[in-house]
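pinging the channel bc i need a second pair of eyes. not urgent but kinda urgent?? the chain im working w is below, pasted from the shared doc
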Amino acid sequence: MKTKIFLAFIVVILAALLSNFIFEWLIIRDFDNYVNGVREDQFYWILASVEGSYSNGGWNKKELSESIHWGMMLGLDIKIIDITGEEVLSSNEVMKFLSESMKRRMEGLFHMHATTGSFDQYPLYIKGDRIGILMSRPFQKEQIKEKESIFKRRTKNFLFVSFLIAGVGSALIALLFSRYLSRPITVLKTAAEKIAQGDFNVRIIPKSDDDVGKLSTAFNRMAESLQREEELRKHLFSNVAHELRTPLTILKTHAEAIADGVIEREKGLENIKNEIDRLIKLVKGIEDITAAEASFFAKGNLTEINLKEFLSELVDDMKPSFKEKGLEIKILKEKDTPVAADVEKLEKILRNIISNSLKFTEKGGVLIDYEKIGNTLYIEIKDSGKGIPEDKIPLIFTRFYRIKNHPLIPPLERGDEGGLGLGLAIVKELVNVMGGSIDVKSEVGKGTTFKICLPTNI
């Protein structure tokens, strides 16, 4: 990743440098075109001035001398040839009529004694009639040439230095930026490798709210999910192994006892059947807890319901079980309450809590109350059962936990031979998934109250 970002920056830098080289070439070319254009314009001015010094079939030497002098000031060695091929006037002759101070200045400026090269010829016309030829060649204008050369050289040096500074600076910036931009990805890569090695405790601190920061947050959620899943898996295997050990040991003991004739065959088979039923119940409990775990990763769909109607249907469905034990179940105050909830999870939560209350209640029954305050839904389930010892309340949501040695609960009802201790664990799991909380208050001999708080969008 870092290499790709760095190479991308380098490509951009090279493109910028190439554009700078093209810019340099365009500057020099435009400068040369400008100089040549100015010289060409000046020459045509001289040409027009020379043609203007001819009138009435003859040359005005004074005006012609001024025109040639003007041309000399522009760095041109000029000769005028008439139509017969005779020389009319030249720069050397004009020099003779100049003052000594002017001669020295002209000589120092143009180095006329060093002028070499052939003349370029330009025909002269007046009203379409040819009147002669202007012959021209440049003086050795060393000072002007040197200035032009210095300008070009300095321009090239300036651009070269700017290219060097820009190139090196851009390369350093590219290196730093590639490291800076790729650092979060490198951190994510390192964290992912740790996850792959089984270290689910690794977390990333998001340092921005951009896509990389959101990716870090999503990675942390994934790591938490994987850590939770791994802990649940280990815990489940440990508990399942523990739960299977007892019935399998009993099965083996009874089988050996029957084989040895220690107990009657019918009694032994009855005991074996009971243990098999217990194993079936254990498998069913494992299926339920697995489904609850699956719901942790699958976000359910929210459905708009009237809580009054929802609870009424649930209570009507469970009433036969309560009547069978001589208990009652009722809703304290029924009022229309629209909510948005995951109906499947909510029903499973309430059924498990009510079933648990039914199991440990011998007289009275279960009362259900509900209320919606703002965007929070409160559901309270209160029973008149045997209650939970205060020191055991923090443990009741632990998987496979069953209250033992309870002074008011006989062994079979404690779950020593019956319940698996999974119902309330599933409840806790589902409440957490729905973003809510559950609170328990209980008093031994008086009953237990479960209070569920769930967010709702209606």
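so The first strand starts at residue 54 and ends at 55. and The domain at 299-455 is CATH 3.30.565.10 (Heat Shock Protein 90). — does that match what u expected or am i reading it wrong
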